[in-house]
Amino acid sequence: MNTIVALDGVTKRYGKLTALENATLTLGAGEAVALVGHNGAGKTTLMKLVLGLIRPNGGTVRVLEKDPAGRKGAQLRRRLGFLPESVAFHSAMTGEELLGFYARLKRAPHSANKALLHQVGLAQAAHRRVGTYSKGMRQRLALAQALIGTPDILLLDEPTSGLDPASRAQVYATIDRLRASGATILVSTHALAEIEPHVDRAILLHQGRIIAAGDLASLRKNARLPTRIRLKVAPCSTQKILTSLHSDISLLHHSADRLDLAVAQNHKLDLLLELAALRDMIEDLHVEEPGLEALYHHLMSEVPA
């Protein structure tokens, strides 16, 4: 994997407050990574370190093999796109004028701005003053400015905040497209279920420390969370099915025509084989693996208070 961003033993303190402690991670080309944690966990601090807006108190930060807070930091930042959690634009400027302003700052051609406004669904509002934009429209404009210059690295801090479902889908489609084109994407979000299909890995932060990192399969394996199996069964057959099962299961819910079971990963195939033998009584079956949100809550519960 071609390493694009590397943090090695990075610590950042603000006075007596340690915002990030001994953080080590790498991001590769064409990789989308979710940065997960509660408010104040250190996610924004980590992004600011990658941007070179602040310096670490210990450890090293390298972006495209350079120090982002070094002498060539401004030049390096032209290859980065950043969407902050809270956006503040000059209300008297139009959407088109704002993109032109940011394009000049990044020394990027203005010719692509029209397409960017169209991409985020603001083509019809390009000549309106930003002060008349809704929160969701301002968020989409912020995404457009982050995409100026076709950045190699995209840092997105709560990119779907304030967006309606259609606009959120548009953001995720943009992440997929940039990821496929080879861009490196770090996205901080609380929308864990939504972001899960659009990232390769997740990094979980708690009180400035990385408590877990990896792809969903490895996180799930390490957490040893059970698989949930939901059954729609023939009426009044739930008890007969339960007495026919020999696998080590937990009964989560039952009714006249429904069973919800939990089974450990190492017993999942055994249970499925047993259920296959009872197919005459089973009308439908749904297997639900623990997702990123379940993994996050589980890992948070295991962190000492």
From TrEMBL:
ABC transporter domain residues: 5-232
- SMART domains in the record: AAA
Pfam name, any one: ABC_tran
Which Gene3D superfamilies does UniProt cross-reference here?
P-loop containing nucleotide triphosphate hydrolases
Instruction: Give the record's keywords alphabetically.
Output: ATP-binding, Nucleotide-binding, Transport
- Taxonomically, the superkingdom here is Bacteria
Q: Name one GO molecular function term.
A: ATP hydrolysis activity
What's the protein called, per UniProt? Answer: ABC transporter ATP-binding protein
The UniProt entry, under PROSITE patterns, shows:
ABC_TRANSPORTER_1, ABC_TRANSPORTER_2
